UniProtKB/TrEMBL annotation, chains A, B:
The keyword Cell inner membrane does not apply. Residues 1-26 are annotated as: Disordered. InterPro entries: DNA-bd_HTH_TetR-type_CS, Homeodomain-like_sf, HTH-type_TetR-like_transc_reg, HTH_TetR, Rv0078-like_C. Residues 1-24 have a biased composition (Low complexity). It comes from the Bacteria. Residues 31-91 form the HTH tetR-type domain. It comes from Nocardioides abyssi. This is TetR/AcrR family transcriptional regulator.
Amino acid sequence: MPPKPSVSKLVPKVPGVPGVTGTSRRQQYSASTKRALVDVAEELFTDLGYAAASLDSIVAGARVTKGALYHHFSGKQALFEAVFERVEADASRAIQKALRGRKDPWEKALAGLQAFLAVVQEPRYRRIVIQEGPSVLGYERFREQEERSTFANVLEIVRSVLSAGTWELEEDMLQTFARIFFGAMSSAGESVSSADDPIAAAERVETAIAFILQGFQALADDGVPLPGASGEPA
Amino acid sequence: MPPKPSVSKLVPKVPGVPGVTGTSRRQQYSASTKRALVDVAEELFTDLGYAAASLDSIVAGARVTKGALYHHFSGKQALFEAVFERVEADASRAIQKALRGRKDPWEKALAGLQAFLAVVQEPRYRRIVIQEGPSVLGYERFREQEERSTFANVLEIVRSVLSAGTWELEEDMLQTFARIFFGAMSSAGESVSSADDPIAAAERVETAIAFILQGFQALADDGVPLPGASGEPA
DNA sequence: CTGGGTACGTACTCACGGTATGTGAGGACC
DNA sequence: GGTCCTCACATACCGTGAGTACGTACCCAG
């Protein structure tokens, strides 16, 4: 027996800007429902976690059915990836915004650190990227994603800081330092967000990182070469 | 209709040491099946991940039924926790073993670092603890577990190193430093295990960490106090 | 106005975690 | 060495949720 489609319950959903050229109304509707799916998915994944957020509840929240979901995404994991990428992109933008304008490497580093610590506080970033990301995407895909978003920022900062002291060091070693700092900041960020007093904890992290960087400077002043350096410190 | 129990297909499983006192044969059998369940679960969780490893496949591998599983564990998550705790405990023991005997804090730090890097290479540790741990256990429980196993080792090392230079610093700040180093080593460890040349990567990590610690020493020699220090450097 | 294709909706299957209930082998006690 | 009780499982079943097959209404081109 064919399903009874009932009366057309088409509500205009989102009208969209009328003056937009190039996209038909159909495409606008489609993009709108896709966005709605990602929006609801982000919220439910954040609140309940990946496993506990059922597709039924997601499509219900977006006021569509599974047919729509499987039209736009190949499955639950693909939907999660879309959410993941958006959260990561937002985080990356927030950090880059904090970096904009700063010229001094050390100032950049501090600003970047603060922005990163702020991002790690966001529940959606903690849940979707840090907590569920590795498990759902698998480590390989997870690393690939981070590599070209948040980690890229850290790498850039570390590069500018380490090459500031007229050091020239190998790319491998720079990557290693960036990894170390990235991990340090991630872990520190978590401890900040779960601390009783996050503000004080953030300050402690900042002073600790600053202290480490200060040590770098002291070594540079003493003429100690960076490991893997091809040039000599000033 | 009551189930037909068929013929008793009881094979002796594991005889157990006959001379063990205090435990009845029943208890020995029970403990043996429990161990078998955890063994198989560890293997399947490592190879397939938490979600993809079905309870049916686990009980089949252990040659029991779900009745046995639910007699020993309250559910899938509880089984995972048992696996998790064992992997963590093994890792912690491995690190402590590497530390045993070393007296010099710097030597201890290096040995601990090497042991940690070795542990992070193990597939089961990577998969169960790092990858699936936060997602399955939830961040709170995950942190609690790490707090009293692997992280405890790192904390001890950091404490001995930082207090070696006649520094006396606040517990909060020490925790912060330990967190930072723990995260740094975790992240570095991952990059090591996924590198093309893990041995060279491990060496880079060691030199990088050593360089950071060297910076600490340089600052100490220059009379720069550690942040949050109540005492003065020598 | 009419075909075609897109963007869904409907109804279904199957796998998997969890549960209710049965049962037979220890082991304690007399 | 019989009796009885309990523990350590086995069996059969259920609900949920991811994924799928298929149908259909609406938009746009011609």
